[in-house]
Write a structure and sequence with these properties.
167 residues; alpha+beta; Peptide Deformylase; binds ligand K2U; binds zinc ion
Length: 167
Amino acid sequence: MSLLSILHFPDPRLKKIAAPVTAIDDSIRRLASDMAETMYEAPGIGLAATQVDVHKQVIVIDVSETRDQLWTLINPEILESEGVQVGEEGCLSVPGIYDKVERAASVRVRYLDLDGQEQTQTVDGLLAVCVQHEIDHLRGRVFVEHLSQLKQTRIKNRLAKQARITA
Ligand code: K2U
Ligand code: ZN
């Protein structure tokens, strides 16, 4: 198992579109395992392969308090979405930035599990937010892009200033 390094916004690699996984082999299972370890260590409640500079459609999620309910989704796609919810979001690729984002209240998601079996689940609440947040990453989209241009400019300037200070 290995910890993977997480790309930080506005790294252009975060805008790359992830390709579908064509074979769920040991390399994909190792990637998912390393992503989970990285997510738990961060700590976070989700992580997309895009964020660790692997442009394949793999996401891991665990929103449980006990941190023992890992959910791995391969080639996830949202079949249906319903309602609206607004929640505070952060992102491991945009450290220190939190803001409100509007998302669907519930989503029906189809995906492959690590055994290659097709699954379909309907989720709501924080799990629905996380699924949408992570699938955004696979589409090359970071949550700050849901915010106003003014907020995005301020965030980029703040992160650039932080990078200069820590360089
Ligand atoms: O994709 C990521 O960067 C992981 C996010 C996922 C996420 C953020 C907000 C709302 C739903 C999902 C991280 O887990 S950000 C850190 C975090 C940790 C606990 C609760 C909320 C955010
Ligand atoms: Zn994120």
